[in-house]
Amino acid sequence: MRKLSRNILSMAVMFAIALVMLSGCGKNTAVTSNEKNGKPVLKALINYMREDPNTYPAVKDLEEKTGYIVRYDMLPQDNPEEKLNLIIASNEDYDMIICTNSQKARWAEYARQGALFPLDEWIAQYGENMRNVIKGSSFDLMKIDDKIYGIPTLGAAGGNDVGSFSSMLAVRGDWMDLAGTAQPQTLEEFTNLLQILKDKDFGSNKESNIPLVPSNVAEIVGVIGAFGVPNAWNEVDGALLNRAEDLRYVEYLKYIAHLYEKGLIDREFATNKPATIKEKFTSGKAGMMSLAYYDVASITDALAKNVPNSSIRFLNPPIGKDGMRGIGESPNILDRFTFIPKSSKNPVETMKYIDLKLEQDTFRLLAIGEEGKHYTIEDGQYIPIDPTFYDERSYSNNFLTGQDDEMYPIYWQARVRKDQRIYDAFMYMRDDERSKFIVTNPIRNAPSLQNEKHIQVLNQMLSDFSMKIVVGASSVSEYDNFLKKWREEGGEELTKEVNEWYRINK
């Protein structure tokens, strides 16, 4: 018995030693400065990516160009905001944290709680490159109470005044040819097209036939613009009105409910996952879906495999009452942003490093690599070299801490050239005719507002109400009760704050 006890004790000690050894392996505390130049080793937190950020080729290139070594940790793929909250609350010593636009509300809370460094003075003192390439309107997105608390990265949008959209309704072109119908121009013609897709059942799907499989009935791209509410906030009589308070949105919901009742949209839309929507279209069951340019190649290939000789055609937004028409601008003009928590041990050095990354040649190296190795230039366009570009720069956007607002949208186009069909769809949605359909998001340049903290709850309330109206679980007669609750949950305060900003900045 004593021998067994000694064995168990011995195993426990060995296990404890192993744990200590393993715990030390994951820390970056062994090296605190670059032996070559004495610059501190910086510690950064980024969102999840598939590859190890510390061995990614672009990171090594940045070390050589800037002289700074950066050690990266990643937020978990699931529930990253919970982990981020813990990190900020425990004052972990990250020098910089790179977040995506979806985490902006959290960032605003951290700034207002005094957990982040204001950057204005350091931008003025150490940010020569960033002042030259990041527009003032971009910096405005990072302001809280007129102070800058982050470095913006707008992504493909750049600092352009003209917005864009990434999705349009797409229909089976071969079915339209069989129907002998042209591109619908009006909402009535659009409805007729859905009815034809149901009645003719070109795929012989019988009970499984789906004219339209929507990704979000609360705002079907293009269709919602026919009711005058293409964006979450729309101008009415010189002021901004949220969809939730706009009676035109109620008319939109009544229309979608009519389509649902007639069997013109998927009756299972409420439980569809993104993969399910794609499967229903590519299997030949659905005739229409919302299609993003970046999904064109995969959707086309999957459809062709299941339905040879099929084709896909984009639909322009239909015209509604009083000539209303359009597609709302992509709401997320901000792709990601970088901030410096007050727990950073090297805030000034971090700012110097961020600015060095925005030097013209260094930024281009990070964004698209080396000419002749990662890309070539043809007629002023950056053409990726396969496979080097995709092997070594596919995830480089995860390391952007600011961007050249003028040049990055041009560099970025190299990413969509991986497949000519994706590039063609990307350019199609930005050609002169489609550009006429863009309805600018009136709050695209608004800074983070105090009452943004309510948005997630308010959006969920509107989504739930919309779904109930469409499936008939609620009546539009209950709209007044819904609106009263929406306002009480922060909608009234948010509307007031949005309009105070708009009155000054429109």
- The mean pLDDT is 91
- The percent range for strand residues is 5-15%
Architecture of the largest domain, according to CATH? Answer: 3-Layer(aba) Sandwich
CATH class descriptor of the largest domain = Alpha Beta
Instruction: Give the beta-strand count.
Output: 16
Number of helices in the DSSP assignment: 20
For the largest beta sheet, what order do the strands appear in spatially? 2-1-3-13-6
Largest sheet: 5 strands, mixed
Q: Could you describe the 3D structure shown?
A:
The protein is an alpha+beta fold and 506 residues long. It folds into 2 domains: 33-161 and 333-428, D-Maltodextrin-Binding Protein, domain 2 (3-Layer(aba) Sandwich), CATH 3.40.190.10; 167-328 and 449-505, Periplasmic binding protein-like II (D-Maltodextrin-Binding Protein, domain 2, 3-Layer(aba) Sandwich), CATH 3.40.190. 42% of the residues lie in helices and 12% in strands. The chain has a 5-stranded mixed beta sheet. The chain has a 3-stranded antiparallel beta sheet with strand order 10-7-11. Strands 4-5 form a two-stranded antiparallel sheet. Helix 10 crosses helix 19 and helix 19 crosses helix 20. The protein is globular. The termini are far apart.
